[in-house]
Design brief:
The structure is a homodimer. Helices cover about 45% and strands about 15% of the residues of chain A. With about 240 residues, chain A is of the alpha/beta class. Chain A folds into two domains: about 15-90, Arc Repressor Mutant, subunit A; about 95-205, Rossmann fold (3-Layer(aba) Sandwich), CATH 3.40.50.720. In chain A, the strands form two sheets. Chain A has a seven-stranded mixed sheet. In chain A, strands 1-2 form a two-stranded antiparallel sheet. In chain A, strand 7 (about 160-165), helix 8 (about 165-180) and strand 8 (about 185) form a beta-alpha-beta unit. In chain A, helix 2 runs antiparallel to helix 5 and helix 3 (about 45-55) packs across helix 4. The first copy, chain A, binds a DNA duplex (24 and 24 nucleotides) through helix 4.
DNA sequence: TAGATTGTTAATCGATTAACAATC
DNA sequence: TAGATTGTTAATCGATTAACAATC
């Protein structure tokens, strides 16, 4: 059991907790710097990253600092070093096996994100209650009946799971996953799951995202109306 | 043109900008309170909402305050009033017609979110470059060839669009949408789009979300290893 | 009335931004 | 050297949390 976990212990000191905002920006830097690597750039500065992503360069530097990498004044960071540092910090340097539950359109879409494997997430199988789907494959990944999940989870020591089932089914799936010893859940169902405190959850609730967009659009439209009314008065 | 926009101008004073965090929590309250409405509850307090969603009741109150609703001490808020206040504040009270671009698995999944219409977003058509998809329907929504988008967008005065195409195609689609006069873009492609400043963008970048989950899992695993090593020393 | 809850103001906390020294 | 950039410390800003008066 301890041997099974040892590859998580890099011995490195970069285990500090860091703000969610920083964690969400690091993949942007990672992506941009990987593009630089492809065109052969060897170094990159925070100024450059900030300009490319329309972010303050000080913020970029603070974020990058969190990965523990040390740069060189006047030069910047080595491109391969920075890529490695971000990957190591995020835990993307060795992929964790994951199960996906729910092989509908959303589940199928998630199976199609090939880069997930480069980002520490290796989906090795998907599950669905629909017996007709069992045995088929999507994007080269096997779809299995849900009742095989408990046994397989135990045997394969799965620690991370993605829930892509309808809202009404999500809690039941979550319970199954908890029984199987899940440690982290990426939940795409629009419900708040009841889970033990030590299980990490990340909710991808599109209604919450939509709210932000909706309100901003509403404000913009109201402002536009006011502008037009002003013009009518003036004209 | 002005007449076309007038339903956005409610005349109400609830046009204040509010933090993204608040905007993302309001849909949770909305969902919970709608459930209460269904079982016939007439009033609800922040304490109750906070307990149900595992949030601080003061925070719930502050968020709800932003909607402009006035509650009654000792009682709480009227359930229908609160639902209406949240919907009005978010602009969910009258749905905006939207186009979806990209009818792959992800696009199909998004067409299946029936509740979007109750949340101010009415997807009226989807577009795809794949000629074989044109003319078909997914979840009752027509799939049209992408080259029809500019004309239709103009004619239907579409202001909001969802991008669900591969990363490489996203900027091209975005340009097309901007030409068509788009005001808000919900971008599911993992790229940062170059858009005019006055176009509202909301990026649903799963790699950014994954980073947060990955790092938390990594930290939890490291902590577990340390615990086990400690136990071995002790034992 | 007593007590729960809202509304509002103040305190705390943390993230972002600014300033500046160190370095190559 | 001059100047750009990192590393680090301080200032600012805003969100969360706490405190408390008002109210029914």
């Amino acid at each position: 059991m301890a041997a099974d976990l040892k590859n998580f212990d890099t011995g490195a000191p970069e285990g500090r907790a860091v703000s969610e905002a920083t964690l969400r920006r690091l993949p942007l830097y990672h992506r941009f710097v990987k593009e630089l690597a492809q065109i052969g750039n060897l170094v990159v500065s925070c100024t450059q990253i900030g300009a490319a992503l329309d972010l303050d360069s000080t913020q970029v530097r603070k974020d990058i600092e969190a990965t523990g990498i040390v740069g060189r004044p006047r030069v910047g960071y080595g491109v391969p070093d920075l890529i490695a540092a971000i990957e190591r910090f995020l835990g993307w340097d060795n992929a964790t096996d994951a199960f996906l539950v729910g092989a509908g359109h959303l589940g199928a879409a998630l199976l199609g994100y090939r880069r997930f494997e480069e980002c520490g997430l290796k989906i090795i199988a998907a599950f669905d209650t629909d017996a007709r789907k069992a045995g088929t494959e999507i994007h080269g990944k096997k779809i299995l009946p849900l009742d095989k999940l408990p046994d397989l989870m135990e045997r394969m020591k799965i620690r991370i799971a993605i829930i892509a089932v309808p809202a009404a089914a999500a809690q039941g799936v979550a319970d199954l996953l908890v029984d199987g010893g899940v440690r982290a859940v990426w939940n795409f169902a629009p419900v708040r799951l009841a889970l033990p405190q030590d299980v990490i959850v990340h909710n991808e609730d599109l209604y919450c995202s939509l709210a932000a967009l909706s309100q901003k659009l509403k404000l913009a439209m109201q402002a536009e109306v006011r502008r037009q009314q002003q013009q009518q008065q003036d004209g």
